[in-house]
Amino acid sequence: MTSFFHTLLLLSLPIASLSASVSVLPGVINIVDKEFSSFNIDPSCNRGFHFTRFDNNNLAAAAAGLVPARLRFGGSGADELTYGLTDGSPECAGISPPTPPDSPGCSYFTRGCLNATHLESIFTLARTSGVDLIVGVSFGLIEACAAGPSYNWKTDVGGGGNAANLLNGLRNRGYKPWAFELGNEINNKNLNTGSPCNITASQQADAFNAFAEMVAVSLPGTLLVGPDTGGAYPQEWLQALLPLLTQPLHAITHHVYNGVGKKDYNSYAQLDSILSEVKWYTDTVKSLAPLSAIWAGENGPSGGGDDGTCGTSSVCGVFASSLWYADDMALRAKNGFVAHQRQDLFGGMYGLTNSLSTTMALGVDDPISIHPDYWVSFLLKRTLGLAVLNATSSDPELRAYAYSGSPPSPFAAAECMQAQQLLLIYLGNATLSVSLPSGVTGTFAAWTLSSDNDDPFGVGARLNYVLLPSTIDVKGGTDPRTFLSNITVQPIVAPVSSGIILPPTSTTFICYGVASSS
Fold first, then answer.
1. What pLDDT digit, counting tens, does each position of 301-324 carry?
2. Domains and CATH numbers, the chain
3. Residues 6+ away with beta carbon under 8 Å from 336
4. DSSP state, 156?
5. This model's pTM is above 0.90
6. Phi and psi, residue 272, nearest 5°
7. Distances from the Cα of 187 to the Cαs of 152, 155, 256, 506, in angstroms?
């Protein structure tokens, strides 16, 4: 029986002039982690790190709304942190006081101090929201790039001694992260000139081997992930590094920005442009590190730029980015990835959230804004299972992905438990009528994410044509762990045989073979 809501929705849409069909092949092709859709915090000066209270309950509510997840505290800024975890932070003597992210000289690579208060706020965020914490450890890139091939991470300034301070500080406070990584995009560039700084893959491998021994003594059982390669000859870097590791990393991580913009955000060719990189990366890991998981360690619609805005032609922070985000996660899951770390939870316009003022600074009680991409991960966790199937579409502008099993969120939609699921990303500009997989009986439940006022470059998002919240403001007494819990918008419910009509440039989550709720 078609739901009353579905009937109203059909009446509000123009008659579909285009049609397409979706098929699902039998057999599971991949199983992703329950934390597949996760996120980062980059402690760079130009991401407002030093002016952000990470113990903000609104930020915790945002993170808790996406559990189960992993929070990676790392990035370019992590390589410039000195760990000042003793009283008064004497280790940080000589480091200039932090300046606001929009001030001159505040960049990815501005030296910073991580003191005990800020460290506590990061662990508070992880603890309050219930996410696993990955701590990115400094490689000492300023010193490393200056020394080049002669740099020895274990013994030289900025390396092993600094890391030992961090490990001692964590152990003394009873903090144990889920995992560590060591270094960020070491293959990429000199901090001052932008040219390669002549650090080699073998130097990073040696550092990982030394650090693994330190972790085994200080915080045994903590996992290691990495090496967080950037875009400069990463395949050659991984091929040189992976055979030199004395123990396998839990996961191999590579940074995989696509670079979509206003001109190509809904181009299936642009979305598919990642496939060549996906192939060499997955083939390399399977060949040289078969015991390690395959992760997208850092990803966004485009690189953030020095000011975190991604540039005027980007789709960072607007609805159009959500099409890329949904497709990138699904396409990688279909091709062997088991985890996807989004850049980032907070800090920079390419994030899932931001400050209301967009200044990338956050007080302890400040509300935060929600970017449309946030709702992609929110819905994914509540509607899609972990088993990835092979779906095909008759129309290249209709991107179809299939899943099965129970969604991982503790707030998963009841209609989606042990169901078959589809993720349909429609890139076209006209309404589309879609025939669902043949041979399936019963009803489906669907949630469609579309732009507010049909503006893909706006900041609003609608779910089944209901406007979604644009801010998070947890009031006193409200538990941030449950502030964003269930999907409050009712699903479209209709017979599978009737198909579904999709609005232009939209993402739809469908659970089928379920009983009607009408």
1. 987 665 566 888 889 999 999 999
2. 4-29+390-514 (2.60.40.1180), 32-370 (3.20.20.80)
3. 30, 278, 282, 286, 294
4. S
5. yes
6. -80, -10
7. 16, 20, 14, 37
